[in-house]
Amino acid sequence: MDHLWSPWRMHYINNKAEKPQCVFCYAVEQTQDADYLILHRGKNAFVMLNRFPYTSGHLMVLPYDHQPSYEDLTAETRAEIMELINTATKVLRKVYNPHAFNLGANIGEDAGAGIAPHFHFHIVPRWRGDSNFMSVTSNTRVLPEDLQVSYERLKEAWG
């Protein structure tokens, strides 16, 4: 049997019962941005690192408003989200120099949304060959950088 150690997950598992159902609303209510991986707070939306990333630098843009879909948001919030996606993409290019990006949102549980009640937009930097044999044969992702290191690099570049 193969073992893949991820001891950082125990903190999440142990504290899950203490948090309200929406981890995004909980995170944005806190003041310790580094602990909750929040890179930027705007007027209507914020940017944070994904705690369970597909690749290093995997960001999410979210409204403060707890809504399941973008059509439930105000036009002002939707516009701010698009501008934050643009800024986040520029920052990721500067810090990680990816070859490409996956941008998207899974709206609804049946579309693959892990946290369906709170709309969020993913920005995933991609590199040629980043889907190596580990992902294909072992259904395992290898992340070369610690989340806190990613946070510090991106926070500095965000300005």
Please give a structural write-up.
This protein is of the alpha+beta class and 159 residues long. The protein has a single domain (9-158), classed as HIT family, subunit A (2-Layer Sandwich). It is 34% helix and 16% strand. The chain contains five helices and five strands; from the N terminus they run ααβββαββαα. It has a five-stranded antiparallel beta sheet with strand order 1-2-3-5-4, with helices on both faces. A hairpin with a 3-residue loop joins β1 (38-41) and β2 (45-49). α3 (75-96) packs across α5 (147-158). The mean pLDDT is 87.
Write the layout of secondary structure elements.
Layout: H1 9-15, H2 23-29, E1 38-41, E2 45-49, E3 59-63, H3 75-96, E4 100-104, E5 121-126, H4 133-138, H5 147-158
Antiparallel strand pairs: 1-2, 2-3, 3-5, 4-5
Which residue ranges are poorly predicted, with pLDDT under 50 across at least 5 consecutive positions?
Answer: none
CATH class call = Alpha Beta
Structural class: alpha+beta
Question: How would a crystallographer describe the biggest sheet?
Answer: 5 strands, antiparallel
Major β-sheet strand ordering: 1-2-3-5-4
Give the rounded overall mean pLDDT: 87
Total beta-strand segments: 5
CATH topology: HIT family, subunit A
The CATH homologous superfamily is called HIT-like
Strand coverage percent: 15-25%
Please state the second-level CATH architecture. Answer: 2-Layer Sandwich
What is the approximate shape?
globular
Q: Percentage of helical residues?
A: 25-40%
Secondary-structure element order, as H and E?
Answer: HHEEEHEEHH
Number of helices in the DSSP assignment:
5
Measured on Cα atoms, how large is the radius of gyration?
16 Å
Query: For the terminal residues, how far apart are their CA atoms?
Result: 45 Å
Query: How many structural units, i.e. domains?
Result: 1
